[in-house]
């Protein structure tokens, strides 16, 4: 939908006013100066005696003063004319004019605004008179759109504009980039060259580079700062680093793999093959991305439109991550990771507010179940860790990794020929056409909303587009729950919102002397400048003009239909691009794009909204399938459960086996570990249908019996070899049910459940205290931390709540007579739930009761530090409690 006719008419009047002002400046001003003061050019050069005589005699007739005014007027007019001409040339060439010194800067702003507003006349009259096949390449809809880029001299490479980038060869032998938070020279070299050991190349090329004001030069590879500029030399074969096809590091060791064809061998000036990274390189940490996630090549220099990239996986045998649901939804790693983080954040927020011990000995309320689509996407994401034998990140680790995630600068659209296809987000113009366009737009919108928190991205959509993408959503509630979502009444209002943001960003960049939004983010991370993405039903000249500035101001636009001035994709029902026109056509033709169906989008949005509004629980979820029964409480084991069991099964923490006190580290299949954990939850046994539905819900029912028999055979074979006996069965099949043999296998979970059952049956508080004391020793870790099944996660949360309820109840029973013991028990509970604010309040009360004021302060600070990982802070109630306890002491 184009802008309203009244808005276009206003643009015309503004353009006419600016053009009139320019005409007056070039014609009327010099005529007036000539009439009033005469020509500024003298008839001849004055002699020294004439000059000295004029200066020495009294200016009684004010001729000297009027002459000075005349010269100043002509000089100011000439300077303004030169500035206007420079702005016009820069505007036509698509290059910003360097900012002038302070006294001349207001005149430059005036000239720039006049030129920009006059351009409105040529950009909008075509719209009023009739449609144009291609919008003007340099239509600028706002006055301050062409804010200058500071001149940095020869030491800084200015990113070319889209209009000139194609004509600029890579002849300098290097390119520049800005250091971002978390970067190291080792990691940059690994991304650019495929080998981190080549980081001295970058250091040698960058150590004499002039840096922005306030930042020192690069003198030590171990100490780099966000905002510093570095040069990345091209390899010896001349290929720009960001266009090379290299293999990434191995996911397990972190060492660089052998480089692909085309990567130059280290020269004599390069480091030796055993070079180590700078000491600043961070120690290995768990990432929110799975080990097999393709590492996206770094973005091109900001301000330059780069082509889509097909990104190789870290290993040749590891295809890009995708998750396909039975409903037709097909998503990539970006959205899957965001959903995992959202579920983790919501769960931690609920744990933060939960009060323990009040309901004992009753069972705790069940944990809300994520919507089906979100749960499946999360499981697919976490399974990638298990597939690579990597530890599955905890909820805390996922949220902490999210805190360090930068604003999105590229958008992964899909997969083609075993490679992810990504496009730069800033300056992206994309038209989606065909029967599959809406599902693809829904996937893009959902992923951007998932990454919008903490001012990383803002999605701007008109109300009619929002209803088409999310018809089941309450748009008012959705916009309120997602700060990164702006829903406008009309498409024209969405464009106006973009124009306002562009003006604001232009002023910020000019005041901060930064070339683009990415550089400003690095220089001042506290400035909230999210990437702006608008989704509109139709293209317009004003939208095209904004996209021309998108690379600098971090703006992207998606149109639900053809967009001749940008890249247009024709998408089939299955999400495949059959035809493409525009700058990215070659790379995107034949790509299977990510897509989200309407019902799944509703489920994913509910999950995302719950993550950052934890007080609003999700809508009721249908009950679990009958094939996935709630874990039963084990019967009290008989006298055979002693330390003499030949096999010990540990399901608290990662699932692991011991035979004759020796860990079994090899030979056990993943499916066998999952079966052992499931049967540990069902000591009375489970039917074949229950087991196969829980372990292989998406597999063909005809193949699941064989998978079950294979897992049981693997368990028996491994355990028989470990203990040297051939007769034991270990997994018993009787009365159409499978169960673990309690006479041969000792399960740590059964010991804990037995203790809790005995405590519930205690006759009085004294017996209950005695029964509950072993809980702190028996509950050593969460249930099956290396499993991702829904039933495993459900019991993990149930067991945590149950055990901490028991510990909190035990502390309440002992705090009167033994406050020191109660304090130790609560601290043990905090080890298992470090985010429960009520637990911290109980600890602070006990510390105050014992006269430990300093400990009260330290406990409050510990709570504040841990909640900071959730982007939260202690409640006012906790702060008031702190003040009351300190004043009382």
From TrEMBL:
Residues 148-176, 210-326, 610-645 are annotated as: Disordered. The chain crosses the membrane at residues 12-36, 71-93, 114-132. Residues 175-232 form the LysM domain. It comes from the Bacteria. SUPFAM superfamilies: C-terminal effector domain of the bipartite response regulators (SSF46894), TPR-like (SSF48452). CDD domains: LysM. InterPro entries: AfsR-DnrI-RedD_regulator, BTAD, LysM, LysM_dom_sf, OmpR/PhoB-type_DNA-bd, Sig_transdc_resp-reg_C-effctor, TPR-like_helical_dom_sf, WH-like_DNA-bd_sf. Residues 242-264 have a biased composition (Polar residues). GO terms for biological process: phosphorelay signal transduction system; regulation of DNA-templated transcription. Keywords: DNA-binding, Membrane, Transmembrane, Transmembrane helix. Residues 154-170 have a biased composition (Low complexity). GO terms for molecular function: DNA binding. Residues 268-281 have a biased composition (Pro residues). It holds the Pfam family BTAD. The keyword Endoplasmic reticulum does not apply. Belongs to the AfsR/DnrI/RedD regulatory family. This is DNA-binding SARP family transcriptional activator/LysM repeat protein. It comes from Thermomonospora cellulosilytica.
């Amino acid at each position: 939908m184009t802008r309203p006719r009244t808005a276009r008419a206003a643009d015309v009047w503004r353009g006419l006013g600016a053009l009139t002002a320019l005409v007056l400046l070039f014609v009327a001003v010099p005529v007036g100066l000539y009439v009033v003061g005469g020509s500024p050019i003298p008839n001849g050069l004055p002699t020294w005696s004439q000059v000295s005589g004029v200066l020495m005699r009294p200016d009684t007739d004010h001729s000297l003063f009027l002459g000075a005014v005349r010269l100043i007027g002509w000089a100011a007019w000439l300077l303004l004319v030169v500035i206007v001409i420079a702005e016009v040339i820069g505007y036509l060439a698509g290059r910003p004019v360097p900012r002038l010194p302070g006294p001349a800067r207001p005149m430059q702003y005036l000239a720039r605004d006049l030129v920009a507003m006059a351009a409105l006349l040529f950009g909008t009259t075509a719209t009023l008179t009739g449609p144009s096949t291609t919008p003007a390449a340099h239509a600028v809809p706002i006055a301050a759109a062409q804010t200058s880029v500071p001149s940095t001299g020869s030491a800084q490479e200015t990113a070319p504009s889209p209009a000139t980038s194609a004509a600029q060869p890579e002849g300098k032998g290097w390119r520049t980039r800005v250091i971002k938070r978390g970067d190291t020279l080792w990691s940059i070299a690994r991304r650019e060259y495929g080998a981190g050991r080549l980081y001295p190349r970058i250091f040698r090329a960058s150590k004499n580079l002039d840096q922005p004001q306030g930042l020192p030069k690069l003198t030590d590879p171990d100490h780099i700062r966000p905002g510093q500029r570095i040069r990345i030399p091209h390899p010896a074969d001349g290929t720009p680093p960001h266009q090379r096809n290299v293999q990434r590091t191995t996911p397990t060791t972190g060492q660089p793999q052998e480089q692909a064809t085309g990567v130059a061998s280290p020269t004599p000036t390069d480091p030796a093959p055993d070079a180590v990274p700078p000491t600043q390189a961070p120690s290995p940490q768990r990432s929110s991305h799975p080990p097999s996630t393709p590492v996206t090549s770094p973005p091109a220099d900001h301000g330059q439109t780069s082509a889509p990239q097909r990104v190789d996986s870290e290993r040749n045998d590891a295809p890009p991550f995708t998750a396909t649901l039975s409903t037709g939804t097909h998503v990539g790693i970006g959205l899957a990771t965001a959903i995992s983080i959202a579920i983790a954040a919501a769960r931690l927020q609920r744990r933060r507010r939960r009060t323990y011990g009040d309901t004992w000995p009753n069972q705790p309320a069940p944990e809300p179940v994520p919507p089906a689509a979100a749960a499946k996407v999360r499981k697919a994401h976490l399974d990638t860790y298990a597939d690579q034998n990597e530890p599955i990140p905890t909820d805390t680790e996922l949220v902490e990794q999210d805190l360090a995630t930068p604003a999105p600068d590229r958008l992964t659209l899909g997969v083609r020929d075993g490679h992810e296809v990504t496009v730069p987000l800033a300056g992206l113009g994309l038209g989606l056409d065909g029967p599959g366009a809406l599902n693809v737009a829904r996937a893009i919108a959902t992923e951007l909303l998932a990454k919008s928190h903490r001012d990383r991205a803002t999605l701007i959509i008109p109300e009619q587009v929002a209803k088409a993408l999310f018809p089941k959503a309450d748009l008012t509630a959705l916009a309120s729950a997602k700060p990164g979502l702006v829903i406008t009444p009309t498409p024209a209002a969405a464009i106006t919102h973009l124009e306002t943001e562009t003006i604001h960003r232009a002023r910020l960049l000019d005041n901060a002397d930064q070339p683009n939004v990415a550089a400003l983010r690095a220089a001042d991370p506290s400035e909230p400048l999210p990437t702006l993405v608008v989704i509109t039903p139709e293209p317009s000249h004003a939208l095209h003009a904004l996209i021309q500035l998108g690379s600098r101001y971090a703006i992207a636009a998606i149109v639900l239909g053809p967009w001749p001035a940008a890249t247009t994709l024709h998408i089939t029902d299955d999400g495949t691009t059959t035809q493409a026109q525009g700058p990215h056509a070659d790379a995107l033709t034949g790509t299977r794009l990510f897509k989200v169906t309407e019902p799944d989008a509703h489920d994913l949005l509910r999950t995302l909204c719950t993550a950052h509004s934890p007080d609003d629980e999700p809508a009721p979820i249908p009950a679990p399938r009958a094939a996935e029964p709630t874990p039963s409480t084990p019967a009290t084991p008989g006298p055979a459960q002693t330390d003499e069991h030949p096999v010990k099964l540990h399901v608290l923490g990662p699932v692991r086996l011991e035979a004759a006190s020796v860990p079994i580290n090899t030979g056990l299949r993943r499916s066998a570990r999952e079966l052992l954990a499931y049967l540990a939850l069902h000591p009375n046994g489970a039917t074949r249908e229950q087991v196969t539905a829980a372990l292989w819900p998406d597999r063909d029912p005809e193949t699941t019996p064989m998978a079950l028999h294979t897992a049981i055979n693997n368990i028996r074979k491994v355990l028989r070899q470990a203990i040297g006996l051939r007769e034991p069965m270990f997994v018993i099949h009787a009365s159409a049910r499978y169960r673990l043999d309690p006479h041969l296998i000792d399960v740590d979970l059964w010991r804990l459940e037995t203790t809790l059952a005995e405590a519930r049956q205690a006759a009085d508080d004294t017996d209950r205290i005695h029964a509950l004391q072993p809980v702190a020793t028996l509950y050593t870790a969460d249930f099956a931390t290396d499993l991702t099944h829904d039933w495993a996660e459900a019991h993990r949360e149930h067991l945590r709540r149950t055990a901490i309820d028991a510990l909190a109840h035990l502390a309440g029973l002992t705090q009167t007579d033994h406050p020191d013991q109660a304090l130790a028990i609560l601290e043990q509970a905090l080890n298992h739930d470090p985010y429960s604010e009520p637990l911290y309040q109980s600890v602070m009360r006990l510390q105050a009761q014992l006269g430990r004021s300093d400990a009260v302060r330290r406990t409050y600070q510990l709570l504040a530090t841990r909640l900071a990982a959730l982007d939260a802070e202690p409640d006012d109630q906790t702060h008031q409690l702190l003040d009351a306890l300190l004043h009382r002491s």
